[in-house]
Design brief:
About 15% of the residues lie in helices and about 35% in strands. It is an alpha+beta fold and about 200 residues long. The longest helix has 17 residues. The structure holds zinc ion (ZN).
C-alpha cells in the first residue's frame, strides 16, 4: 500500500469500482506550476482492495458552471478524458444514458470508453433480470447493439455534462468536437476569459 499523502483534504467518498465493497477516498491537492497554471491532483484509494488511481486535472477556465458537449465520432474521441463531479449530470441521448447528479451516483473519472463499458455492464445486468416477454426486452437489445458499436467507435453520439457547480471536465482528443456553453446567468461580458482555441 502507498504511504499517506500529507496536507491533502478529503471531501468525498464513494464505493470502490473494483471490489465493490470498499470505500474510495479521494484526496485532492492543488499544485501551482511555475507558469502560473493550477493543477488539481486527485488520488483515489480503496480501503479494502489495492485499487488506487492518480490523476491530474488542469484547473483552467473550465471550472465554470455550464454545459460541456463532446461529439464522439471516432475511436480517438473515446480516449477523451472525463471527470464527472458529483454535481454533474451526464447524458448520452442516443444511448438513453442519464446519470443524475448526487453523492450516491457513481463518480466518473475515466475516459469516454470507460463510461460506455460501465454503462454496458449495467444494461446487461438489467437485461438479465428481465423476462423475454417483457416489452422492454427488445428495446434493451437495440441499446446493447448500439453500445457495442459505440465502444468500437462505429456509432457516433453526443456526450453532455451539465454541471451547475462547474467541477466537471472533459479533455477532448479532438478540440473541434468539443464545445462549452456557460450558464445564461453567469454571462457578464468579459468577466471570464474563454478559450477560443
Ligand atoms: Zn476496492
Amino acid at each position: 500500500m502507498s504511504e499517506k499523502a500529507k496536507e491533502t483534504e478529503e471531501e468525498f467518498s464513494f464505493k470502490c469500482p473494483s471490489c465493490k465493497d470498499g470505500i474510495i477516498t479521494i484526496n485532492k491537492t492543488i499544485y501551482d506550476s511555475q507558469d502560473g497554471d493550477k493543477l488539481l491532483i486527485l488520488k483515489f484509494e480503496c480501503n479494502e482492495c489495492n485499487f488506487t488511481k492518480n490523476d491530474i486535472i488542469p484547473m483552467a477556465t473550465k471550472m465554470i458552471p455550464g454545459m460541456i458537449t463532446l461529439k464522439v465520432k471516432s475511436e480517438r474521441d473515446l480516449k477523451s478524458k472525463i471527470y464527472r463531479s458529483p454535481t454533474g449530470k451526464l447524458e448520452i441521448p442516443e444511448l438513453e444514458l442519464l446519470v443524475e447528479p448526487g453523492p450516491r451516483a457513481d463518480f466518473y473519472f475515466t475516459n469516454v470508453e470507460g463510461i460506455l463499458l460501465r454503462f454496458e455492464e449495467a444494461v446487461r445486468i438489467y437485461k438479465n433480470n428481465l423476462n423475454e416477454s417483457d416489452p422492454q426486452y427488445s428495446d434493451i437489445e437495440i441499446i446493447l447493439g448500439d453500445l457495442d458499436k459505440a465502444i468500437k467507435g462505429e456509432f457516433p453520439f453526443t456526450l453532455k455534462i451539465t454541471d451547475l457547480a462547474g467541477g466537471s471536465y472533459i479533455m477532448p482528443q479532438d478540440e473541434s468536437h468539443y464545445s462549452f456553453e456557460p450558464r445564461e446567468y453567469e454571462r457578464s461580458d468579459n468577466e471570464y476569459n474563454f478559450n477560443d482555441s
